[in-house]
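Is this the right way to post C-alpha cells for a design question? Let me know if I should format differently. Anyway, here goes:
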C-alpha cells in the first residue's frame, strides 16, 4: 500500500468514525513498515474540509457565541467548539504527513502520533457532547484551521503557522477557559470538562514541541534564520498575537519558544 495514497483516503473520509477506523489501521501498518513511501507522490489540493458533510460551515463571526457555562447550552457550545478544533487538528496533522515527501521517518511518526492524540481528544469531547444530549455537527462551525492548511504549502510555513501559531495559541487560551470553569459551582459535568481540558492542554505542549523541532529543521534546510517565524505570522495573521497579556510562558518555553520570541509576543519581558 502507498503511504500517501492511503493518507489521502483518510483525509477525504467524511464521517468521523470511519476516518478514525481507517487511521488506526493505517497507523498500525506504518509502525509495522507495511507501507510504501513513494518519493514522487503529488499531494492533492483539497477544496473543502472533510467535515463539510457533517457540519454546517459558516463565517467565523456567525458561529454561535458561548453563553453561561453553568447552563447546558453554554456547555454544549463550548465543548462543540473545542471538539471542532480537535477534529480539524486531526486533519491538519494528517495533512502535514501527507503533503511533504522525502522527509525523515521520524517526521511522519511525529505527525501520526499527533493525529492519534487529537483523535483521543476528539473522542473525549464527543463523549461529553453525547452526555449533554448533543453530537458533533449539531452546531455551526468555521473553516479557519482548514484554510490555514490550504494556504501553507511549504514546510517552513506549515510548521510556523499550524503548530507554532495556531496550536500554540491553545496553550494560552485553554488555561483561561480552565480558570473560568474552576470559579463555577462544582458539578460532575464541570469537573469532567476541567479534567478533559487539562489532559488536552498537557498533551498539546508536545505537539507544539514537535512543530518547533521540524520548524528548526526546515529553517536549517533552507538556510533561514528562525526569526523568519515572525515574518510568516505577519504574512498570514497581520493582527499578530491575540493574547499578549496571557502568554503561557512556561508551556511555550517547554514547547521550544525562546525568551526572545516570548518577550516579543508579550510586548514585555516575561522571561
Amino acid at each position: 500500500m502507498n503511504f500517501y495514497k492511503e493518507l489521502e483516503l483518510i483525509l477525504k473520509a467524511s464521517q468521523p468514525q470511519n476516518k478514525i477506523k481507517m487511521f488506526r489501521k493505517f497507523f498500525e501498518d506504518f509502525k509495522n513498515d507495511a507501507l510504501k513511501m513513494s518519493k514522487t507522490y503529488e499531494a492533492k489540493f483539497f477544496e473543502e474540509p472533510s467535515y463539510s458533510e457533517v457540519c454546517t460551515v459558516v463565517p467565523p463571526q456567525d458561529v454561535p457565541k458561548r453563553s453561561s457555562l453553568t447552563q447546558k447550552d453554554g456547555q454544549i457550545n463550548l465543548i462543540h467548539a473545542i471538539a471542532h478544533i480537535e477534529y480539524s487538528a486531526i486533519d491538519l496533522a494528517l495533512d502535514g504527513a501527507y503533503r511533504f515527501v522525502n522527509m525523515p521517518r521520524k517526521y511522519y511518526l511525529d505527525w501520526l502520533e499527533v493525529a492519534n492524540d487529537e483523535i483521543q481528544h476528539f473522542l473525549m469531547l464527543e463523549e461529553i457532547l453525547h452526555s449533554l444530549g448533543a453530537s458533533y455537527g449539531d452546531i455551526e462551525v468555521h473553516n479557519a484551521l482548514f484554510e490555514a492548511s490550504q494556504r501553507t504549502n511549504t514546510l517552513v510555513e506549515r510548521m510556523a503557522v499550524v503548530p507554532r501559531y495556531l496550536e500554540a495559541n491553545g496553550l494560552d487560551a485553554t488555561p483561561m477557559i480552565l480558570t473560568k470553569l474552576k470559579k463555577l459551582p462544582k458539578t460532575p459535568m464541570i469537573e469532567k470538562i476541567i479534567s478533559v481540558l487539562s489532559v488536552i492542554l498537557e498533551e498539546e505542549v508536545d505537539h507544539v514541541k514537535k512543530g518547533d523541532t521540524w520548524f528548526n529543521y526546515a529553517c536549517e534546510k533552507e538556510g533561514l534564520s528562525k526569526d523568519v517565524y515572525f515574518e510568516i505570522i505577519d504574512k498570514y495573521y497581520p493582527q499578530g498575537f491575540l493574547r499578549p497579556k496571557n502568554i503561557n510562558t512556561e508551556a511555550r518555553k517547554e514547547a521550544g519558544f525562546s525568551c526572545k520570541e516570548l518577550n516579543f509576543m508579550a510586548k514585555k519581558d516575561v522571561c
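Format looks fine. Someone answered above. Worth noting: The domain at 3-34+62-266 is CATH 1.20.1260 (Ferritin). The two ends are 48 Å apart (CA to CA).
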